[in-house]
Amino acid sequence: MVPDLRISNGALPLPVANTDFSSKLSSAASSSKSRSDSQFGDLFRETVEGVGNLEQNARVAIQGLMNGSGVDVHQALIASEKATEAFELALAMRNKAVQCYQAVMSMQF
Q1: Comparing 5 with 61, which gets the higher pLDDT?
Q2: Domain presence at residue 96
Q3: How far apart are CA 93 and CA 103, in angstroms?
Q4: What is the domain extent for residue 55?
Q5: Residue 1: inside a domain
Q6: Spatial CA neighbour of 89 closest among 57, 61, 55
Q7: End-to-end CA distance of the chain
């Protein structure tokens, strides 16, 4: 008889592939702070640029639709929804980052 490995929510646990994960995590944490800061900055910059590109694509599609230059209605709507969802996701991420910052600043040592 095979034992039931399900967790309380019904999901199966993932197998542990690397047992020395904690040693790798501690060595990664001791790496250069400036490198992690630049990686976060690059990631943030790429995200903002991606949202800007999606908004520009939506703007061009909507203007093409209004000018009658061969853009279908569904293409303009899809581009607009992609831009809206990307903006809302970026806004939610920003709000969560501000909330985390405020929680850290309210801590007393």
Answers
A1: 61
A2: yes
A3: 15
A4: 38-105
A5: no
A6: 55
A7: 53
